[in-house]
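Quick illustration, no need to memorize.
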Amino acid sequence: MNLAARPWVASYAPGVAASFDVPEGTLPDLLEDSVRTYGRATALEFFGATTTYLELGDAVGRAAAGLRSLGVTAGDRVALVLPNCPQHIIAFYAVLRLGAIAVEHNPLYTDRELRHQFEDHGAKVAIVWDRVAPRVQRLPADIPVTSVVTVDLTRALPVSRRLALRLPVRRTREAREALTTTEKPTGPRKVVPWRELLRHRLLPPKHPRPGAADTAVLQYTSGTTGVPKGAVLTHRNLLANAAQGAAWVPGLEAGRETVYAVLPMFHAYGLTLCLTFAMSIGAKLVLFPRFDVELVLDAARKSPPTFLPAVPPIYERLVAGAAERGVDLRSIRFAISGAMNLPQSTVKTWEAATGGYLIEGYGLTETSPIAAGNPIGPTRRPGTVGVPFPGTDVRIVDPEDPARDRAPGEAGELLIRGPQVFQGYWRRPDETQAALLDGGWFRTGDIVSMDDEYFLTIVDRIKELIITGGFNVAPTEVEDALRSHPGVSDAAVVGLPRDGGGEDVAAVVVLDPDTVLDVNALRSHCRGVLASYKIPRTIIQAKDLPRSQIGKILRREVRTQLLDNGPRAEGKGDSP
């Protein structure tokens, strides 16, 4: 294959340029350009409350000054543990303006999951949802967090809605408790309400700025080993991927699009499509702290979306809900699906309901995350993940010897090279060396095939991560949780395909003698150490597990047996 020619550009949609130059500058520059260009336009909408680009830029400058007063300097890590909300976007860009590094976390993580990541990145300041603050305060004293900035989501609501939440009615009380807490975090760390950061004067324009090659974000991924590690993403990586996304969409109208943030922005997919791409094109970003069909459809009546990045189950639920409630979705011209397989039936139903395109893309945290996508036009091929993005090169190689390219049409491991490819894993040189080959090629661990027009199809995964609901689940982590139960001697965890795309977490356990399988007790035990989406939906008992000659559990055989025989072993747990 002539890499210099990038032959796949012939399959790009009309209007998508074959060449691509990475924009100069940094992510703060990206936002400041949009503030200058789209100043009085709405940047953010949250339950009807709006923020203009000028107001957003002002809040970022004040928050940056507030973080500086807490001792944040260039190169420091700042932990963000927030759902989608205006404060999340302000905090993200304020951290970056100081030259510090934003570290995104899932606010649903358990104490143990948070502890591992905080031990790894060593942040001294954490900006957290107030409901999460007690968990951060419980982190061991040797973790160097000194200040916890607490965010009350209700303060970003319209005044009328905020007042309504005070009514002594059960429904409003439940709504208030879902957004905030009255619990005061107690512990050794200084607590600073978010509003205090915004009381500072603007950060002086002459304050030192980051460079394009500086690290902007640590995004944790389970990678190929099952051990969470931080992917190092620079300003250039993220700026490039936002620009690649904008270049990919013909007919995109800068300053006039409305993007719905139903994907969590602590996930690489949501981070790029919402935190960077949407801001780069001067879009109105409508924020949802969690996906709820009713909330999204209510918003669609008032601020019709034009661009919706999501995962297949969201598209399916929105089409069904819109039909039931009589909500028109035809404003949505562009929809991009990722993180799991997109069924062709979902494409057909969605495009019939909206008249727009629904295309599938492919990426990984390590590629910021998007590396390939289906053209947004008639040349798309449902069932594939499309062709490499502008400025991106790919190779398909022998997984056992990545120096050997596969013959055309032959499946192999996908290698990616491009401006969006990460710099390595945070403080993990061995894993970095294994993932990044000479010449800047990243080993994805995915087995793919490429047809004669260069469309990629995912065949299998070398790595054994389970993708459920768009999130990665490391089998090792779930197995460790199961083995820590006093009645479990061993466990194997795999992903089983789910109708409509994605996978369910399934576990096969070997119990101690005289122990009776209690599925509910095992799930309850797991809830103490794992986020809810990691808890096995199916738990089966077996007398033993298939192993290699050195005793390693063969997860592939476990998965094959489950698929071949069905859940008919010694017992099956009901879905939670």
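The radius of gyration is 24 Å.
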